[in-house]
Structure formats: structure tokens, C-alpha cells
Amino acid sequence: MAGKSKGILRILTVVSIVATLCVYVVVGFSVYTLTSSIAGTLMDLTGAPEELFEATTDPAGGLTLTLRFTAKNPGLMEVSAASNLVLLSVDGEVIVEGSDVERIPSGSSRELVVSLHVSAEDAEMFETSPPVIRLQFECRTLLDLIGLAISIEIGGEAPPP
Amino acid sequence: MASMRKIIKAVLSAVLCITVLVVIPNVGLQYLFQSIPAEMLPFVEEMIPLHGIVMAMSVIGAVLAILSFSSNMVEDWSPIKLLSSIASAFVSFYLFLLLLGLGDPSRMGITQLSVEMATIIWDFRFFIILQLLLLGISILSAIIKFYLARKEYLAGR
């Protein structure tokens, strides 16, 4: 009985040490992957913000706003990158919303495209009260179990033409 | 009476705790504050309560050093050893929660930082679950170790 318990104790000790080390290594790899992906992508976003948005007007007066940017993954693990774009009224009411998700293997990049269609009535309203643009960029790794997101709100400013 | 080897082991383990959790974080904080521009300091402090985190780490380091010292000074069959091991496991778990929550353990792995018009959110709940499993394994291991040592001690009396 004592021999069996000693064996279990030895296994538990080894499992505990290996599991602790694994947790810390995985935490390190994941944090590095997430922060490098977010930072790498945001560097490009801040570099050329005017090229991010593309607005086209249809004959009926409606507006199509397209957000296009390249998400990078210089990290060590695959990430799932998601972008979410929301146009809010000054009261905080969601006018229109869209998102795109891409899986990016380690060391590569993918383009994320979000298209929003704004009706002619709303587009006309934007001239008097510009919408709040909320852009959220999220990266998840380790089978999407952990994630890091950044959300930016540009309040009351009209999107670049 | 504790042997010399036991005393050295207890002192070394306590010194290691103090070095890792008290000395290094405090020196690192001083170095960080010297290396970043002075006008950035209020901004950094507003985002992350670095002083609070380092202070909490120092207190936890002192507590872990005391627990480690007392645990190493007594025999394996002593209830003090069992209690110290269990308390150390809980304190270590609390430290993990504190670090992942950037100074607020109640966030349980989901932390949100607001900087002017941007918000950063991280979701590390999975690591909390893993750490809870490790806590369970540590406690189980301490109980089995105590049970075996106690049995051997009682048989030999």
C-alpha cells in the first residue's frame, strides 16, 4: 500500500512540475504571439490610415464603407484574427455593423475586409451628425482559448472619403 | 533539533523567494522608471498600477519565504509542513491571479485597459483553469506526502 502510494506521489510530483513548466512556456509563447500580432498589425494601421477606408456612393444615395487592412502574425503560433466595424449614432445606437475573421499561420499575413452598407437616409443624417466609428481588432490563439483585443472609437468624425 | 543541512535548505529557499519576488521586481521597477521619459510616468501609472503590483508581490514574496522556511525546518510528518505546503499553493495561485489581472485578482483572467479612445482587453481565463488544476495537484501531492510520512513516523514510534 505504501509502495503504491509512493509511486502515485512520484507521478504526481513529476506531473505537477511538467505541467507547471508547460503552463509558463505556453503563457510566454501565447503572450508573445498575441502582442506581436496586434502590434505588427497596428503599426501598419497607423502608418497609412487614409488607405484603410474606401467609401462608394450608389445612385440611390446609399453609402458602402469598406475597411481593408492586412493582419500580420509574426508570432510563434497560429492566430485567429477578427475585425469588427460598427457605426454608432451619437446616442450610442448601432446603425450598421460588420466583421471578418481569418486564420493566420505563424509568420504570415492575411487581408481582412469589412464592408458596411449605409442606407441613403442614414448617409444623409451623417452630414448633420457624424457617426461614431468603433473598430475592434481581436487576435485569439491556442485553439482560440486565449485572446487579446483592441477597440478604438473615433467619436463624431466623418469617415475619410 | 533541525540538522545543519535542513537549516541551509530552509534559508536558501526563503532567500530564493525574497530574491525573485521582492528584490528583482523592486529593482526592475526602479530601472523601468529611470529608463522611460518622466512625462510618460503618469500615463503608465494610470494604465497599470505598477507600484501596487510590486508592493503586493513583495508582501506575497515575504509570506512565501516564511512558509517555505517553516516548511523546510520541520519534518515531513509534521502538520506544519502540510499546512505550509497548502498555504504556499494558495498564495502562489493568488500571485498568478494578481499578475494576470494587472493588480486586480478579482478580474479572473479578463482584463480591460482604457487609454483615451482605445480599449485593450485580454482574455486569459484558460490559464486560470490550468493553474487551478495545478493547485489541486499540489494539494493532493502534499496530502499524500504527509500521509505517508505520518504513517512511517507512527509505525517507528
The largest β sheet of chain A comes out as: 4 strands, antiparallel
Radius of gyration of chain B: 20 Å
**Content-based structural category of chain A:** alpha+beta
What portion of residues of chain A belong to β-strands? 35-45%
Query: Could you estimate the helical fraction of the residues of chain A in percent?
Result: 25-40%
**What oligomeric assembly is this protein in?**
heterodimer
Counting DSSP E segments of at least 2 residues, the number of strands of chain A comes to 7
Q: Kindly provide the name of the CATH class of chain A.
A: Mainly Beta
- Describe the sheet with the most strands of chain B: 2 strands, antiparallel
Count the beta strands of chain B. 2
- Give the strand order, joined by hyphens, for the main sheet of chain B: 1-2
Overall mean pLDDT of chain A stands at: 83
Nearest-integer average pLDDT of chain B: 87
Number of domains of chain A: 1
Proportion of β residues of chain B?
A: 5-15%
Structural class based on helices, strands and sheet pairing of chain B: mainly alpha
Summarize the structure in words.
The complex is a heterodimer of chains A (161) and B (157). Chain A has a single domain (2-154), classed as Immunoglobulins (Immunoglobulin-like), CATH 2.60.40. The model of chain A has no long low-confidence stretch (mean pLDDT 83). Chain A is elongated. Chain A has 161 residues and is of the alpha+beta class. In chain A, a hairpin with a 4-residue loop joins β6 (132-141) and β7. Chain A has two helices and seven strands, in the order αβββββαββ. Chain A has helices at 2-47, 120-128, and strands spanning 53-57, 63-72, 79-88, 94-104, 109-118, 132-141, 146-154. In chain B, α1 (4-35) runs antiparallel to α3 (50-73) and α3 (50-73) runs antiparallel to α4 (79-100). Chain B has a two-stranded antiparallel sheet with strand order 1-2. Chain B has one domain. In chain B, 75% of the residues lie in helices and 8% in strands. The two termini of chain B are 17 Å apart. The model of chain B has no long low-confidence stretch (mean pLDDT 87). Chain B is mainly alpha-helical and 157 residues long. The interface between A and B is medium-sized, with 28 and 25 residues. β7 of chain A pairs antiparallel with β2 (118-123) of chain B, so a sheet runs across the interface.
